[in-house]
Amino acid sequence: MPLTFDAPAVLAVLVLGTLYVRAARRRDWPPGRTVAFLAGLVTIVLVTCSPLAVYDTTFFWVRAVQTTTLLMVTPLLLALGSPIRLLLDTVGARWLRQHGRGKVARALTFPPVVTLALVVPVLVLYLTPLYDLTLRSPVADGLVRLALVLAGFTYFWTRLGLDPTPRNDPHLVSVWIAFTEVIFDGALGLVLWLGPLLAPAHYAAAHPGRGPDPRTDQIIGAGVLWIGGDVAGLPFVVALFVRWARDDERRAKQIDVQLDEEAASGAASTSGLWWENDPALAERFRERG
Q: Residue 78 class from Cβ within 10 Å (0-12 exposed, 13-18 middle, 19+ buried)?
């Protein structure tokens, strides 16, 4: 099985993995988060050093697998590792604590902005001459890969809410953003499926004489970007609903404790109307009254 070696990617993975593990050992850090973060780093190695990297300039569908992995799979696993929380717990990051909820940070993580950060890089990559450049320039290719990981991480970091974020948007917002991403995946897949061939001269020269022809190759790649992107996003949707349910359960317990304390102190309402006894709704009814 042919392999290759991407020195910058491997070096980055080793540095990040070492720093994360050392920081986690100093804290009572959940093992599951460590496993998730390290798994995310492993996916980077697979994309850059496995047969996927050997044939990424030969077949379009291989490049599509790399893009889907770096945009959807790798960032999700890294975000599940809560690296920002670990960073804050380890080194303090005073500047980050001071400015992490400032106006600029909140604007950059505004839901429509986060949505654009996820979908625009892929659209620019495949619908502009940038794609052809990445096939010819290792530097441009490396920068695009880095941009994909950062864009995906920004999305999952702000939507999962495992790490501190500048904004506390409702979970329903994350659901709508995920739905929007599905629409863009489908639109891009259709364009690549029915549209002209990308970098036709390059793939005609690089074709090894076996495997799918360039048109079939691009159709397969379009399917990977469309269906593969949606499938890769399913774990995120599951994690989102799990966190949503846990937050609702936690909030319900807090309300029950508050009601019990009010009842014990004799401050609870005796109207018998449950919504007037709910601390989350009582103030609203008082304002209307």
A: buried
Asked if residues 189 and 225 have their Cβ atoms less than 8 Å apart, the reply is yes
Per-residue pLDDT tens for 167-217? Answer: 676 666 666 666 777 777 788 888 999 989 999 999 988 888 788 899 999
Taking a C-beta distance cutoff of 8 angstroms, is the pair 132, 138 a contact?
Answer: no
Quote the tokens at residue 85: 């929380």
| Alpha-carbon distances of 167 from 109, 136, 190, 210, 279, rounded to whole Å | 7, 40, 34, 51, 23
Rg (CA), the chain: 23
Q: How far is CA 189 from each of CA 118, 121, 152, 248, rounded to the nearest angstrom?
A: 16, 15, 19, 36
Kindly write down the DSSP assignment for every residue of 224-241, as one continuous string. IIIIIHHHHHHHHHHHHH
Residues 6 or more apart whose CB falls under 8 angstroms from that of 229 comprise 68, 71, 72, 181, 185
Instruction: Compute the distance between CA of residue 112 and CA of residue 114 in angstroms, rounded to an integer.
Output: 5
d(CA 266, CA 65): 63
- Spell out the residues 6+ positions from residue 174 whose beta carbon is closer than 8 angstroms to its own: 159, 240
Please give the single-letter amino acid code of residue 180. T
8 Å CB contact between 45 and 125:
no
User: pLDDT tens digit string along 42-100?
Assistant: 999 999 999 889 899 999 999 999 999 999 899 999 999 999 888 877 776 565 656 55
- Distance CA(59)–CA(208), nearest Å, equals 9
User: What predicted TM-score, i.e. pTM, was given to this entire model?
Assistant: 0.77
